[in-house]
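CATEGORY: protein folding

GOAL: derive structure tokens
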Amino acid sequence: MHVSKRFVFLVTAVAVATLTACTTAPETGRSQLILIDSAQETKLGFQAFREMKRKEPIVTSGSQAKRLQRVGKRIAAVAKVPHAQWEFVLFKDSDSANAFALPGGKVGVYTGILPITKNEAGLATVIAHEIAHVTARHGAERMSQSMLIDVGGSVLSGALGQNKATHDMVMQAYSLGTTVGVALPYSRKQELEADHVGLLYMARAGYDPRQAVAFWQRFAEYGRKRGGKPLEFLSTHPLDKTRIAALKRLMPKALQEYKRAKRS
């Protein structure tokens, strides 16, 4: 079989990237492959956040906005994000029970999740989880994974040669395999890792980590009232019972952190 120079180059590039871009996630020690420079990642985060603030309505005053600032600053104080420019924004959307964080310390919370958080500890659960995504650089990790998947597709396409029927069949299988077998489970792993790290952050900030379990139980009930969720196998997020069970296993360590924070 003829092997093109481009094919050899792509294979070599993948190998070099894999060997030189390994890092370790904070708190959990999980090995990561990150190909994105942190400065580039932060720049993308800032750009995306500016665009969101330009397009979506924002709540800038009132008790809810003040609570977000208060809780956000407490969590940010215990999270280690070099050169972070922390910003906590409350987006007005009562139908969206969601929150997010972007590289560089940009955190957005939608008003629709506030009835589920109920109190400061519930909100701390959400914010700590999102900030954990930032400290673990999950966004850069996902981008790096997508880059490798794209390169892998190019390598496979080049190796298949000119037989169009075989080429199309294999490429379709590759696409499905990377989506179900790689991208979705990978996201679930990151979500559970953010739960893990976030639980420690909220405890270190002086919030009772047991309230995290209570929040996810309320969130599970919220999901059930709206028709439930897809099977865990085909979901980017873990099932609520999986998430809650993992939090309970981590609770002894989190409670130690909480007691230490209360004494200081």
